[in-house]
Design brief:
The complex is a heterodimer.
Chain A lengths: L6 E9 L4 H10 L4 E9 L5 E9 L2 H13 L3 E6 L5 E12 L5 H10 L3 E5 L3 E8 L1 H11 L3 E7 L3 E4 L6
Chain B lengths: L5 E2 H12 L3 E5 L5 H10 L4 E4 L3 H15 L4 E4 L3 H5 L1 H9 L4 E7 L15 H4 L6 E4 L6 H13 L5 E7 H5 L1 E2 L17 E2 L2 H13 L3 E5 L1 H5 L3 H11 L3 E3 L14 E4 L6 H9 L2 E5 L5 H4 L10 E6 L13 E5 L1 H8 L9 H13 L12 H12 L4 E4 L3 H9 L8 E2 L10 H11 L5 E6 H7 L3 H6 L5 E6 L4 H10 L15 H7 L3 E5 L5 H10 L4 E6 L40 H6 L1
Parallel strand pairs in B: 2-3, 2-4, 4-5, 5-7, 6-7, 10-11, 10-13, 11-12, 13-14, 14-15, 16-17, 16-18, 18-19, 19-21, 20-21
Antiparallel strand pairs in B: 1-8, 9-15
Classes of the chains: A alpha+beta, B alpha/beta.
Chain lengths: ~170, ~575
């Protein structure tokens, strides 16, 4: 991760149409922004979708992207949450190589991060962890001394705290 | 339920007519045959104009919309037919022109399977449309057409594309034709401001000693000419207009500074440099009028009014922004304004007008500005003008004086060569009783001239003034000024005999080769009841001035051919070359 370019969290409330994702992705790519993670899911009202996007890029460019996203016909609202009080979570599945000799050690780390064991075989364990991105980073780092066979992360989902709307 | 059973193609045409479409431009092809068959059978009120190329169809719809304010539709087939409209759609998008583009498409079951003449036009055009649809059911047609028309014509206008798979056109449509729209995310706002914003603007205007208004296409699109004039006259504020804003404030008005920017008048550019308040009304403040963005109006309070809030801060950070329709904003603003004291400022600008008037050479062959100046005088500045893109476009902008909006039709943002002829055809369809003149260059004209046939068939009395210098003149000018006279690929030797060519289509065609013949030849063409073309053999080497060299601020407006070349535009290294070394 480069340190000079800041990461931004955006949430977009959008009509559930086949082209909406492509239009939004294009709004980012045209301006040279790289999308780090993207989560799309149905909103409480199933005609609408909620997207949470984590992207890297400079402040000035981001302002324009937010405005351009808001201008899209299908978008109801696009907001940035970088400096706000939000609940931010992601889920990770990590498949770690661990036979019976190392299993206990892996499970100890999992326990510390409150990760669940969702699959177990002779040679591997699949852990499911939920939490902030930083927590998951920390757990994955510790697990690296074993062999990580596969890693899947959902990317961040965000919700504003209290009465405020996301 | 619909009154009688109809198929998708019929429903589509009926819905377009119901929405308000009066004219369509296009060209048929395999995937669009059901649509054209419905057109044949319905004999509705929509007029169809068969063009010779799909790009022209889009430009004709564009010219029609810019001359009337009403959108036209484009109807073409899939694959190459659809792809050929891309330049036309992009041109309309860049200049905020409403348009409905209907493209035929392969049958639904073949989508994505590389069928004959299948192109993913929906995704191809995504960045250059205001919105688009891929129809999946004939029952969606009434809603989609209604939404498309609404989106194209409201807020900041723009093109909307509807891709129609062949079997959606032949499928029964059982939905009612007056469908409800479903656009939860689209809420164009005409009044996105608070009363306090207007109070602030009124206050700033009253305090300003050297204010200037920049009127853009947004002011013209909202037909704010009356309110703009009232504001300028009441407060005695000078007005400069962008290329697309031309005419929204009368060029002939005492307070007019005419155009600004790269080839604007020296006095407009000077006014923008020296102003202490800049009020942009529906102008997006693009790179062709800014010079150097960081130096633009740097000592002025910058107020930006636009219907599209994404324009605020895109290149210029305004001190105050106001989102709204220009006419509505001005109507709300006018009762609040108080006159300040601008007498000194106007006097100063008057002296600039005397010091740096627009001029052109009169000796040594025919000069394009000379012809346009004569045309302006002959027609009293009343004609609807269309242009291609390049030197002739800038001369037309400088020398044809317009007093009304929707009179000067040109490709501004996209800079699309070949726009002039088809735009004139579209404009003439929209305003049949007015004189429509296309000023074109020999480069651009050859890109779209196949539609001479359309002008002749429909007996459109358009006049084409072809400024023939046998060069891609604007590129040549840049190569001359900034690239050490390396004239790379700008020589158009091999041009056809344009007079013989136009005659072969059955038009009146004339040559103009001498200055003394200008009035006679122009009159002959203007008095002719049908389409006419004048091939004007202008001098081969002539440059457009004033000019702000690229990468330079407006302060450095150049008035004539510089003795010392200004060097290459920023961003490229000025390598010493043999040619340069020799000169030094």
């Amino acid at each position: 991760m480069s340190t000079s370019v800041p990461t931004h969290n955006l949430s977009i409330f959008v009509a559930n149409r086949p082209s909406a994702l492509a239009r939004i992705a294009q709004t980012f790519s045209r301006r040279g922004f790289n999308i780090e993670s993207l989560v799309v899911s149905p909103a409480a009202n199933s005609d609408l979708s909620r997207m949470t996007i984590t992207a890297k890029g400079r402040e000035a460019g981001l302002e324009q992207i937010i405005m351009q996203c808001n201008k899209l016909v299908d978008v109801l609202a696009c907001r940035e949450h970088t400096d706000e009080e939000v609940v931010a979570r992601e889920l990770a599945l990590v498949k770690v190589a661990a036979d019976s000799t190392r299993r206990a050690e892996v499970l100890q780390i999992a326990d510390h991060f409150r990760a669940k064991t969702v699959d177990l075989s002779d040679k591997s364990i699949v852990l499911e962890a939920t939490g902030s991105s930083e927590k998951i980073d920390a757990m994955v780092d510790l697990l690296r001394k074993f062999k990580i066979i596969e890693l899947v992360r959902t990317g961040k989902v965000i919700m504003a705290r209290g009465e405020r709307e996301t | 339920m619909s009154e009688k059973q109809m198929i998708g193609a019929e429903a589509l045409l009926q819905c377009l007519e119901k929405a308000g479409i009066e004219i369509m431009f296009g060209l048929p092809g395999g995937a669009a045959i059901p649509l054209f068959d419905a057109l044949y059978q319905l004999k509705g009120k929509i007029k169809f104009v068969l063009t010779r190329h799909e790009q022209n169809a889009a430009h004709e719809a564009d010219g029609y919309a810019r001359a009337t304010g009403k959108p036209a539709a484009v109807l073409v087939t899939s694959g190459p037919g659809a792809a050929n409209t891309v330049t036309g759609i992009m041109t309309a998008y860049m200049d905020s022109v409403p348009m409905i583009v209907i493209t035929g498409q392969s049958v639904r079951g073949m989508l994505g399977k590389d069928a004959f003449q299948e192109a993913d036009i929906f995704n191809l055009t995504m960045p250059i449309v205001k919105h688009s649809y891929l129809l999946k059911s004939a029952n969606d047609i009434p809603r989609v057409v209604k939404e498309a028309y609404h989106i194209a014509t409201t807020g900041r206008p723009g093109p909307v594309l509807i891709d129609v798979p062949k079997d959606v056109g032949t499928e029964l449509c059982t939905a009612a034709l007056d469908a409800e729209m479903n656009l939860p995310g689209y809420k164009p706002e005409k009044r996105g401001y608070l009363p306090e914003t207007l109070d602030f603007i009124a206050d700033a205007l009253a305090k300003a000693k050297r204010p200037v208004i920049i009127a853009g296409h947004g002011a013209a699109l909202s037909r704010a000419e009356k309110e703009l004039r009232e504001l300028a006259e009441k407060l005695q504020i000078p007005v400069t207009s962008t290329l697309l804003g031309k005419g929204v404030f009368p060029d002939s008005h005492k307070l007019s500074l005419e155009g600004l920017g790269m080839h604007g008048t020296a006095y407009a550019n000077r006014a923008v440099v020296e102003c202490d308040l800049m009020l942009a009304l529906g102008a997006r403040l693009d790179d062709r009028i800014l010079g150097v963005p960081s130096m633009f109006c740097r000592n002025a309070v910058k107020i930006h009014v636009d219907i599209d809030p994404t324009e605020f801060g895109k290149l210029i950070k305004p001190d105050f922004q106001c989102q709204g329709d220009i006419k509505t904003v001005l109507q709300d603003l006018l009762p609040r304004v108080k006159r300040g004291n601008t007498a000194e400022w106007l006097k100063q600008l008057e002296s600039y007008k005397k010091k740096w008037p627009l001029t052109y050479a009169k000796k040594g062959g025919l000069h394009p500005p000379q012809v346009i100046d004569a045309l302006n005088k002959l027609t009293g500045g009343k004609a609807i003008m269309t242009t291609d893109v390049g030197q002739h476009q800038m001369w037309a902008w400088q020398w044809y004086k317009c007093d009304k909006p929707w009179q000067f039709i040109t490709s501004g943002g996209a800079g699309t060569m070949g726009f002039g002829l088809p735009a004139a055809i579209g404009a003439q369809f929209g305003r049949p009783d007015e004189l429509v003149i296309a000023i074109v260059g020999d480069g651009g004209f050859q890109m779209t001239m196949s539609d001479l046939a359309t002008a002749v068939i429909h007996k459109l009395p358009i006049k084409i003034i072809l400024m023939n210098n046998h060069y891609l003149g604007m590129v040549r000018q840049w190569q001359d000024m900034f690239y050490d006279e390396r004239f790379s690929q700008v020589d158009l030797r091999g041009n056809p005999d344009f007079v013989a060519l136009a005659k072969s289509y059955g038009m009146l065609a004339l040559n103009l080769k001498r200055g003394a013949d200008i009035p006679k030849v122009l009159k002959r063409a203007l008095e002719h009841p049908g389409p006419a073309l004048i091939n004007v053999e202008v001098v081969m080497h002539e440059e457009v001035y004033p000019m702000v060299p690229p990468g330079k601020p407006l302060e450095e407006t150049v008035l004539e051919h510089p003795r010392q070349k200004p060097g290459r535009p920023a961003g490229r290294k000025n390598k010493p070359t043999a040619a340069r070394a020799k000169k030094n």
